[in-house]
Design brief:
Blueprint lengths: L4 E7 L5 H10 L13 E3 L10 E5 L7 H10 L2 E7 L3 H17 L9 E6 L9 H10 L3 E6 L8 H13 L6 E2 L4 E2 L1 H14 L9 H12 L5 H14 L4 E2 L2 E2 L1 H13 L3 H10 L10 H4 L11 E3 L1 H14 L6 E2 L1 H7 L24 E2 H14 L1 H10 L2 H4 L9 E3 L3 H7 L6 E8 L5 H8 L17 E8 L2 E9 L9 H4 L3 E7 L5 H13 L6 E6 L14 H7 L6 E2 L11 H11 L16 H4 L31 H34 L1
Parallel strand pairs: 1-3, 1-4, 4-5, 5-6, 15-17, 15-18, 18-19, 19-20
Antiparallel strand pairs: 2-3, 7-8, 9-10, 11-14, 12-13, 16-17
Helix pairs in contact: 9-10, 12-13, 14-15
């Protein structure tokens, strides 16, 4: 709603414009009337709508046409004053003033007009018979009122109607010629109805109507008043009330009735409570409330937001199959001005056998949007009516801004629930299959049309009994240019094809150029592990490369399975993202590999079998390890024997000492 209102009074000389203003201010008819009243401002606390109001007078004798045009352009509402006892002043309303104002105002932003018949105390008849045809001819005329500056008749009402014409205009809501609400108003009220219909049965129950009433007007309806409202609808519409609930048609009828009876402020109160502006568009302030996000912080949905989204899912999952069919998804997003999720979403989150987004996939997509594009998440929650239904100041209350990642590293613990893993690899290395495998899809279920391809996949993984979201991002294979976004993540997955001899070189070069000196944990993954493994054309084997750079041993992965691919690798990635700086295991048992098992056979067509790493159980981090060479093994064995011998000798010496004391 506007923060102030500017009212301009125009009309022929001697019709009483100045007298009306002075009578309003002094609450009595002035003995002497100046040619023109100075602009006055009525404070907000003494106006019915609690909005400051500026009243501007016009005098043909004291002002030029240019000054008049400037005032017309600044006015929010214009009162055309005529004298009810002066026919010429009435004729000038249509022959001069309305055309003049129309020429000086933008057609797209129509200024409402009020016709004011002054000096009603001088005649016994009304001018309404003459004025009503003019009102019907010009849609910009909001209302007309007869008054008297001398007797103070309808003076306060005049300026109230003028203020109301600005704050609660009829024009955007109603078409008087058609005697029905305009399409934009119907569309807005339809969204409001659907948001308020919490069980999605197409009816507003007494409980839902009371919540709606309390939300918009801060007071519930008494049971009898509620029944009276429904009875009014029943008397006028056959299908306005069904099963004792208000239908969408009945809801529209009620607001049409409010507008026709001059109570359009009721409809405007509802519209503005649900975020609409004077043009019946959702305001930027409603859709994008302020949210401060410091550097190196991320955004996540909080517990209350997930409960709200769960209720929205349950509301639209009519067949209770824990998945949203295309029709159910369309119904859910019917309160949006556009369809927010495209076909690529089905390749980003978990779906059922029919390709429909599951409950888990639904929450995952919301989590992804919140993490990657928080402003869009705020917008979407606004369309769903989060601040209204959850009784919050704004949808920003649904979000948590995590603390700086540097603090997490210092404290060696995190409260975050969403972690980003950037997946790098040469072309054809199996990145897309790796992402789809996270969604439980084996190779047979990965038939994706190119235009529906997604470079993201998100699902949950359990780490030490905690459910966390892992967001995989496939980065295009271009090692020469990587943006800050490509390098900024919680964990890096370096993927190579074990059956392609040139695949690993890409990962090695990428690691040395961008991640060798960074604090971002990295994990090397040998994809397509169901195929014969060949020697990589690089100076070091993948295993030796990991040993040299103190990385965990390469992990094997394949999505060419009968069932869903193994999720172990995704759990390891999530764990490394959560605990990037856990200390390495310097002692024996990180994983044991003999040289003969890790060396590559020198053959024309070599096939190498790399054993899985054996991880020792550790409360610190089971996936962070350091390789121990045979020389180190032998050295460690020597010192172990020496330590054992020293211990035995000390125990023996202590026993002899005690025996000697006893002998004495």
């Amino acid at each position: 709603m506007r923060k102030d209102v500017r009212i301009l009074l125009v009309g022929e000389p001697k019709v009483g414009k100045t007298s009306l203003i002075m009578s309003l201010v002094s609450e009595e008819f002035p003995d002497e009337v100046p040619p023109r009243a100075e602009e006055i401002t009525i404070p907000a606390d003494v106006t019915p709508e609690r909005v400051p109001t500026h009243i501007v007078d016009y005098s043909e004798a004291e002002q030029s046409d240019e000054q008049l045009f400037q005032e017309i352009s600044k006015a929010n509402v214009i009162c055309i004053v005529y004298a009810v006892n002066n026919k010429k002043s009435i004729e000038r309303v249509t022959s001069h003033w309305i055309p003049l104002i129309a020429d000086r105002t933008d057609k797209d932003s129509r200024v409402p007009l009020i016709l004011v018949g002054n000096k009603s105390d001088l005649v016994e008849h009304s001018s309404m018979d003459t004025i009503l045809p003019i009102m019907n001819q010009y849609s910009e005329i909001e209302t007309c009122v007869e008054c008297s500056a001398k007797t103070l008749k309808n003076i306060s009402e005049l300026f109230y109607y003028a203020q109301k014409a600005v704050l609660h205009p009829t024009g955007p809501l109603y078409c008087p010629e058609e005697k029905e609400m305009k399409a934009a108003c119907v569309k807005a009220l339809t969204r409001i109805f659907k948001v308020s219909d919490m069980d999605n049965d197409g009816l507003l129950s007494d409980l839902e109507l009371n919540f709606f009433q309390r939300t918009c007007f801060n007071t519930p309806l008494a049971p009898q008043a509620l029944e009276d409202v429904k009875n009014v609808v029943r008397r006028n519409m056959a299908d306005g009330v069904q099963d004792n609930g208000l239908t969408l048609k009945g809801f529209h009828f009620l607001h049409t009735l409010f507008i026709q009876r001059g109570r359009h402020e009721t409809t405007w109160t509802v519209l503005r409570r649900f975020g609409y502006d004077d043009d019946l568009e959702l305001t930027q302030e409603y859709l994008f409330p302020p949210l401060k996000i410091p550097p190196d912080c991320t955004t996540e949905l909080n517990h209350n937001a997930y409960l709200f989204l769960q209720s929205v899912f349950d509301k639209h999952d009519k067949d209770r199959d824990c998945a949203l069919s295309p029709d159910e998804l369309k119904d859910l997003f019917s309160v949006f001005p556009y369809m927010p999720w495209g076909p690529d979403v089905n390749n980003t989150v978990c779906t059922n056998e029919q390709g429909w987004i599951t409950y888990q996939g639904y929450l995952s997509q919301w989590t992804l949007t919140t993490y990657l594009d928080v402003q869009r998440c705020l917008e979407y929650l606004g369309y769903l009516g989060y601040p209204i239904l959850c009784e919050q100041e704004s949808q920003a209350a649904a979000l948590t801004v995590t603390r700086n990642k540097r603090i997490d590293l210092q404290k060696k613990q995190t409260q975050r629930n969403v972690f980003l893993c950037n997946v790098f690899g040469a072309r054809g290395s199996g990145k897309s299959g790796f992402l789809q495998g996270f969604l439980g899809r084996n190779l047979m279920r990965q038939k994706i049309r190119h235009e529906h391809k997604s470079y993201y996949a998100i699902s949950t993984a359990y780490v030490y009994g905690q459910e966390k979201y892992l967001l995989l991002h496939e980065v295009l294979p271009d090692t020469d240019f990587l943006s800050e976004t490509d390098l900024s993540c919680d964990v890096v997955c370096l993927l190579y094809d074990v059956s392609n001899p040139r695949s690993f070189e890409f990962c090695a070069r990428l690691y040395k150029n961008h991640f060798m000196d960074s604090r971002t944990p990295c994990l090397l993954v040998g994809a397509k592990a169901d195929l014969p493994e060949v020697r990589q054309q690089y100076s070091l084997s993948p295993l030796d490369f990991c040993r040299k750079h103190k990385l965990p041993a390469p992990q094997r992965f394949t999505c060419n399975t009968a069932e869903a691919p193994s999720r172990d690798i995704y759990t390891k990635l999530t764990t490394k993202a959560m605990y990037p700086l856990r200390p390495c295991l310097d002692e024996l048992g990180a994983f044991l590999l003999a040289d003969q098992e890790s060396s590559l056979t020198q053959q024309v067509h070599p096939v190498v079998h790399v054993e899985e790493s054996i991880y020792m159980e550790s409360s610190v981090d089971p996936f962070v390890s350091r390789h121990v060479t045979q020389a180190e093994m032998k050295s460690s064995t020597f010192w172990l024997r020496a330590s054992l011998g020293a211990t035995v000798f000390a125990v023996f010496g202590f026993a002899v000492y005690k025996a000697l004391l006893k002998h004495r």
